[in-house]
Design brief:
The chain has a single domain, classed as Spore Coat Polysaccharide Biosynthesis Protein SpsA, Chain A. The protein is built from six helices and eleven strands. It has a seven-stranded mixed beta sheet with strand order 5-4-1-6-10-7-11. It has a two-stranded antiparallel sheet with strand order 2-3.
């Protein structure tokens, strides 16, 4: 029996307000394929990922009838176990998916490793997934893909810049996947729910309970598509072959 079982949770329940879209932004298309298709293909082709759960808004969930109002995937993806209804917040959506993973992995005696990934980072290179998993398998810890900060960062207060300059070598830009063992993720999320804590990412909930977090190199191609400008840029980069890794 394998010592590890790996799960990817793809978060795709966003409504696309900042994208200025009239639908879930994950249903928008590049080169004739939805962003969700692009993302699922990356994880499905990665043999290090055993199972995939996708979190969708309830109204976007596929039905057996596959009507035009439902999402239609362009292919059957290896490892895709199903769709999970999202919650009111990103944190609620992740918790719903973690419970689905817990049920699916029931009875497995090894370590259950979970990678939580923003579906809007749909062009993630396989090497980033590999680095996250390698670090995760090496020790009991959490792992996050990061990039160095290259711009000067300053704080602002009351519409004026403060004198304090934050050293770039002490800053990192968070990407996803953000990953850890299933048991510690469930513990951190349940504790946050009990204490009514909301965080902007998964690592924050692990840091607050003192769990060790390691960083690995992310990739500039693992960009998050948030605004119309991002989508336009992604179209150009895709056409130029930038994401062909």
């Amino acid at each position: 029996m394998s010592e590890f079982r790996t799960y990817a949770i793809i978060l795709a329940a966003g409504r696309g307000e900042r994208m200025q879209a009239d639908q879930n932004k994950m249903l928008l298309k590049i080169a004739g394929r939805s962003l969700l298709d692009q993302c699922l293909e990356r994880f499905s082709k990665n043999e290090a990922i055993d199972h995939i759960f996708t979190v969708m808004a309830a109204e976007d969930m596929p039905s057996p009838e596959e009507t035009e109002q439902n999402i239609a995937l362009s292919a059957d993806y290896r490892g895709l176990e199903g769709f999970i209804a999202g919650g009111k917040t990103r944190q609620d959506s992740v918790f719903n998916a973690l419970q689905a993973v817990e049920k699916h992995a029931a009875g497995f005696k090894g370590r259950v490793l979970v990678l939580i990934h923003d579906g809007a980072r749909c062009f993630i290179p396989s090497a980033v997934v590999g680095r996250v998993l390698s670090a995760l398998k090496a020790e009991r810890c959490a792992v996050v893909a990061t990039l160095p900060v290259t711009d000067t960062i300053r704080q602002v207060g009351q519409f004026a810049l403060k004198e304090l300059e934050m050293p770039r070598d002490e800053l990192l830009q968070m990407q996803t996947p953000q990953a850890a063992d299933l048991d510690i993720l469930l513990h951190a999320f349940k504790l946050a729910r009990e204490e009514r804590i909301q965080a902007t990412d998964d690592i924050a909930l692990l840091l607050r309970i003192g769990y060790p977090v390691r960083t690995v190199s992310g990739d500039s191609r693992n960009l998050k598509l948030t605004s119309p400008d991002d989508l336009e840029l992604a179209h150009l980069l895709y056409k130029a072959g930038y994401f062909n890794v």
